Amino acid sequence: MNLSESLRLAMESIKANKLRAILTMLGIIIGISSVITITTIGNSLQQTISNTMSDLGGTYLISGYLEAVYPEDDEDWDSWEYPEIDEDDMISYKDLMEYKEKFSKQVKHVIAQRDLYNGTVTGEENTVNVSVVGTTSGLIESMKLDMVAGRDISDRDNEEEKATAVVSDLFVKYAFNGENPLGKQIDVSLSDGSVIKVNIVGIYKYDAKKFNNLGSNQSEKDITTYLLIPVMYAENIDNGQDMNGFSFINIIAKDGENPTEVAKDAQEYFNSTTYKDNEDFQFKCQDLASELGIINTVLNVITIAISVIAAISLVVGGVGVMNIMLVSVVERTREIGIRKALGAKNHSIQTQFLTESVVICLIGGLIGIIIGILNGFVLAKVAAVLVSSFATDIGSMLTVTVRPSVTAIVVSVVFSMLIGIIFGSYPAKRAAGMSPIDALRYE
């Protein structure tokens, strides 16, 4: 008997006993669907986190910040107090530029910013809200925003403390009625009562998702957008802060560079220069690539652990397959006897029942895979809706991606077939070992 004949007989037997076949498959379906659902959710979480981080700055983004020097001895903790930051503890613009020049082969941008005041700009027909932010070059790129026209704030703008500005296309739409504002001077009325005059040199495309404004009830013309100016110019006009310099910076590594190594070099550099003799603070760096790797590792461990637990139900399903196949052998005893009397070999009988067992498990596995993928899609979408409902700021930043695990699907198909072979072997062997005379006499 060839394989095609065995498959035909297996399908005929399944069709003749549909309900029994479905009940037999049930354990396999539940086990496989559970595993696929869990792995789909795990993969989707990893991809969602990765995509969200990429949208918010990418894995090449490195955060640098000041961290207090903590006591090394336990007895010193009782008298220790968190030190206050003064201007001498801050990172200066000069420090940033020296670092950028020294590591120019590794570093694309060193970004520092100073949030000033909210303000307004009065156009021909509308008054537009802005948030004035002093920055170095690269903030637009770090936020994954697109330039529509003109250019970003440059290092030269900061060195010469120029009164330049980069505005959003939304600002242009309502302040200039969509007309090209490049090169024009505007008056910005700040919330402290002062007025600054800046020249527009660039326009970026406003993205509500990047500014956590998705789902906002504000009308479009009332939305507050960033008006970017050179951070060194901002230091001269900022009367709201007593200290110049920065306690937090972002570094963007060049493509192809290892962000973890760039972060390590930056930390060592600042601690050996700017903070060499600082007893209160040190410079600390963290890169998104390492953070993402840790998160993915944790998710992988959890996914595998839960999948193994869910896969235990497959063993129960396999026992069910063996039980039903043994019943099938008993019911078809006379059929086995007739086939043996007509010259069928033990191998052919064994192949027939083993094939039937594998087909039942394979069909159950495929159904389980489909159900598992559907469950993963539904649960991922429900989770995204719930996150968006209860945490609007977080939900607006998420880039939800549903990605079934191809590896889990392939393994599930193979595992289904193995279950059919393992748990179908004994019934098949028992059928093949029957005496033809005893089988023909069986009532």
Helical content band:
40-55%
Poorly predicted segments: 391-395
* Count, helices: 14
| Dominant shape | elongated
Q: What series of H and E elements makes up the topology? A: HHEHEEEHEHEHEEEHEHEHHHHHH
SS-based class = alpha+beta
Average the pLDDT over all residues and give the rounded result.
Answer: 80
Secondary structure layout plus pairing:
Layout lengths: L2 H14 L1 H38 L5 E8 L24 H10 L4 E5 L1 E10 L4 E9 L3 H4 L4 E4 L4 H5 L4 E5 H7 L9 E6 L4 E10 L20 E6 H7 L10 E6 L5 H14 L8 E7 H44 L1 H9 L4 H45 L1 H6 L8 H27 L3 H5 L3
Helix pairs in contact: 1-11, 2-9, 2-11, 2-13, 9-11, 9-13, 11-13
Care to describe what's here?
- The chain is α+β, with helices and mostly antiparallel strands and 443 residues long.
- Helices cover 53% and strands 17% of the residues.
- It has 14 helices and 11 strands.
- The chain has helices spanning 3-16, 18-55, 93-102, 139-142, 155-159, 169-175, 231-237, 259-272, 288-331, 333-341, 346-390, 392-397, 406-432, 436-440; strands at 61-68, 107-111, 113-122, 127-135, 147-150, 164-168, 185-190, 195-204, 225-230, 248-253, 281-287.
- Strands 3, 4, 5, 6, 7, 8 and 9 form a 7-stranded mixed β-sheet that branches.
- The longest helix is centred in the last third of the chain and has 45 residues, at 346-390.
- It is elongated, with a radius of gyration of 34 Å.
- The two termini are 26 Å apart.
Summarize the model shown.
The protein is an alpha+beta fold and 443 residues long. The chain has helices at residues 3-16, 18-55, 93-102, 139-142, 155-159, 169-175, 231-237, 259-272, 288-331, 333-341, 346-390, 392-397, 406-432, 436-440; strands at 61-68, 107-111, 113-122, 127-135, 147-150, 164-168, 185-190, 195-204, 225-230, 248-253, 281-287. The strands form two sheets. Strands 3, 4, 5, 6, 7, 8 and 9 form a seven-stranded mixed beta sheet that branches. Strands 2-10-1-11 form a four-stranded antiparallel beta sheet.
